[in-house]
Structure of Major facilitator superfamily (MFS) profile domain-containing protein:
Amino acid sequence: MWFADIFCIMGWLLIAFAKDYWWLDFGRLATGFAVGLISYVAAVYISEIAPKNIRGGFTSASSWMMCCGFSLIYFIGTVVSWRTSAIIGAVPCVLQAIGLFFVPESPRWLEYTKTFQQFPKATILELFQRRYAHSLIVGVGLMVLTQFSGITAISSFMSSILESADFSTTFGSRAIAILQVVDSHLSIPVTAVSVVLIDKSGRRPLLIVSAAGMGLSSLLIGFSFLLQDMNRLKEVTPIVVLIGLLTYLETYSMGMAGIPWLIMAEIYPINIKGVAGSVVTLSNWFFSWVVTYTFNYMFDWSSAGTFFFYSIISGATVLFTAKLVPETKGRKLEDIQASMTHFLH
């Protein structure tokens, strides 16, 4: 986490004091590296220090805090310059770097460190052994399906999607920016509900409801664009697209936003947790880039077809969760990992 904070601070300062686009590129690269690292490490740390009966709520609370952070910086970004926003972004990183001096190492990690020091360091090739196949499929599968459900593309291109639906023509382009701020605030109570429910209803039900909601929302958006292409109900379709987008983002916040990271932190034995986490995190951010990069090409090809594709992937996520993802609510980490690998440490 210290390592991530250093890169994050460096990245934000490069952006804040950028003299040309190279500074911006290296700044974004540094912050991206830091986010990729800390997104897994923080989830693992929280899962290792929290009691089993509230582990899900504690880990999901980090997603809720991210929603609060997104909402706050989105609002701040409407009233200050991007350079000032970058400086503000560096402040929490500095505070965390200082705060880590007072945070103990994970007791679970300390407990097993001496045990595993006598064994060779785990490699990526060891991860592909038969006994780890189930846990690897679950971890990578959830991340890949989440990205191919379109979340990164929809979040990044929400303004373009609304403009293509003639929303700006109907209500004015300034309304789009306001709606994006409103949506970031709406995610806060939805994520808070999932924090409360996750250790009562379990991980799997929330994942299934979340993925199903995303799929139905994508289907609604796809039909709206299809009607628009057919010159039908053009006065109504912008509103339907807006409703679909808001519903999609809120149902995503309910489960798919944070639970895959929680499950990933729970299912891997400590001897391969570092390697497995690296592979799964890499798959998440790599396919996030793929989906974001290809969105404009897909959307130009067929706006309706793009969302129908996202809807199909969300439906596949429901089936994947029902068939392969274990319920980890209220179970010890050792029991979860033993049941998936049939290998007790």
